[in-house]
Every structure is written in C-alpha cells, then in structure tokens.
Amino acid sequence: MSILPAGCDVPPFTLRREDGAPFTRDDLAGRTTVLVFYPAAFSSVCTDQFQIYEEVLDDLSAQGATLYGVSIDQTDSQVAFRESVGTTIPMLSDAIPQAAAAKAFGVFFEPTGVANRALVIVGPDLKVQWSWEGEHPGILPGANLIFDGLAVAS
Amino acid sequence: MEDLRTAPPPPICDADHVRGDAAGTAIVFYADFTCPRCALAHERLTQAGAHVAFRHMALRAKHERAVPVACAAEAAAAQGAFWPFADALYADQGRLDDPHLWQRARDLGLDVERFDTDRRDPLVAARVKRDTRAALAAGATTTPTLFAGKGPLSGVPHSDWLAQLGYDERVRIPKPR
C-alpha cells in the first residue's frame, strides 16, 4: 500500500467531525484542503506536530488552505488531545469503520494498525495535488513541507 | 506574509545573540525558555564553551509563557544582558511569570521600567516571531533544534554530536546509561 500520488482522484470516504457529523469527499470540493494523517492522539511526536502546525494556520488560511487532523482515534480522544496540545486544528475521526479512510488514501501502517504520518493536499477539483508519507510514523514532517506542497500544487 | 517554504536557517549576523569560542564551529540554537529539554541543551552548550547563536523557537501552543518570556529576553538584550538573562531563565524554569521576570531584571541591574516597556514592544514580538518562523522554514519540528553545518539536530545535543563539531576537549558530559 502506498499513498495516493498527485493527480489521483480522491476516493470516496466518510470521516466523523468533532460534532459527530459526517465529513466526506464532497466536503473537499471547491477548496484546498490539507489532510494530516497521524498515528495516535497523545503521542509525543503528534503533540509536536500539531503545535508547530498551529503556528502557521494563518499562513495556510492566507493561501486558501484548510487543515484537518485525521486519525483512527475516537472523537472524544481526538478532542481531548487537541485541547491538551493547545491547537485549534479540527480533528476528523477515522474510527468507524476503523482506518477506512487511511486505507483509501494508502496511508494505513500495517505493522501497528494505525494511520502512518502523512500529508495529502487535495485541490478544489477533488484531485490529490501533492502528498507525502513518512517511512514510519516516527518521522515528523515539518510545517515547511506543507508550504512546499502548496507551492507545487499551485 | 513571509515565505515558509523550505529554506536553510539565515546565516549568523550581528543581530544574533552569540557567545562562546568564536573559533569553534558555530551552532544555531533554536530554543524556547519554557522548554526543559532546551534548558539541558543550553547547559551542555555552555559547558562545552560552544560558539552558539541563540534564536527563538517560541510556539504559542507549546506553553502560554513561551512568547512572553522570549520577548522579555529580547528586552534584556536591549540593555546588553541577553545571556545573563537567558542563563537566569534556564536556571529556574519554574518561575516565569511577570514578577519573576521583573525580579531577574532587578537582580541583573537592569532598568526595570525600560525592560517592561521594551518587552511589550511590537518590534520585539516581531523579532521572536521571525526567529520562530525561520526555524519552521528550516524544518525544525521540536524544541530545541540545532543547526551546525549539516542537517538539524532535534533535541538535546549529546557529547558525541558536540565532539564531532570539535568540542570534545571541553565536554564532560556523561553518556546516557
């Protein structure tokens, strides 16, 4: 399994927003979205990751991009995690059916049964514009990579 | 809006806070005064006498005092006391509220009124933000992050890393068990 490369159509998927409402492929239409797949709420690497991304949210917004965190955690865990790390980045749960979106995007990490650490930029046309996946979940992509990806995508 | 695409850290310049052996390999040290790992890194770099340029990596989400304390250090720098103030901050990270900052300023003989005005100066906040964003553009993902020629080191520098930079003669750091 490998991450969807640039140019691929985004597959159908259903994630859960923090309020329980579904978040689907259709919610990506007409805007640029950065999906941040991460392995597990409360891990130290995930904490660092969202704290540095929080620092650049205004810059992402200025480029018309919206960023979401995606993991197989239940929503309650994600919200507690988000609050504990002091980030405003909205979370999307891939818990039910577990890891279905991670598998659809090609970022499921078989050895531990979680989403690998990965970034996917989806364009308004519902195509993958840019993607990145770590060799393993311990590798943290810097915020700079997101801006590199947006520059390539534009 | 600054460019946050991947870029190396800016070269060391006169505006940086630099100390240590100027003949030694220069280390750009991106750090946060509220971060315990940064305190340990600061101690090891100081012990090694390393040629260090300190830059802020103050993340708002990391600690509510990260940015205010970084600004206070810049206010101390305006009175020529960046390093004594930085040493005092890292020596006691349990006391980082405003009264503690004022006390440090008093202890160092600074003009406390000027210190308090300077730390709220928007230019000071801009300096801290500029440093932090340069760190992120350089690929820093945690505090501390150190750059010394090659790729970044994330975390506390160990003796082998320092020895590779030529600081082996002065480093007396026990290896982790």
Describe it.
The complex is a heterodimer of chains A (154) and B (177). Chain A is an alpha/beta fold and 154 residues long. Chain A has a single domain, classed as Glutaredoxin (3-Layer(aba) Sandwich). Chain A has five helices and nine strands; from the N terminus they run E-E-E-H-H-E-H-E-H-E-E-E-E-H. Chain A has helices at 44-54, 57-62, 75-85, 100-104, 143-153; strands at residues 14-16, 22-24, 32-37, 65-71, 91-93, 108-109, 114-115, 118-122, 128-133. In chain A, the strands form three sheets. A five-stranded mixed sheet of chain A has the order 5-4-3-8-9. In chain A, strands 1-2 form a two-stranded antiparallel ribbon. A two-stranded antiparallel ribbon of chain A has the order 6-7. Chain A is globular. Chain A starts with 13 loop residues before the first strand and ends with a helix. Chain B is an alpha+beta fold and 177 residues long. Chain B has a single domain, classed as 3-Layer(aba) Sandwich (Glutaredoxin), CATH 3.40.30.10. Helix content of chain B is 44%, strand content 11%. Chain B is built from seven helices and five strands. Chain B has a five-stranded mixed sheet with strand order 1-3-2-4-5. In chain B, helix 1 (36-48) links the parallel strand 2 and strand 3 (51-56). In chain B, helix 2 packs antiparallel against helix 3, helix 2 (66-77) packs across helix 5 (112-118) and helix 2 packs across helix 6. The longest helix of chain B is centred in the C-terminal third of the chain and has 16 residues, at 122-137. Chain B is globular and about 45 Å long. Chain B starts with 16 loop residues before the first strand and ends in a 10-residue tail after the last helix. The mean pLDDT of chain B is 93. The chains are: A alpha/beta (154), B alpha+beta (177). The A-B interface holds A 48-52, 54-56, 59, 62, 85-87, 140-145, 147-148, 151 and B 1-7, 59-62, 132-133, 136-142.
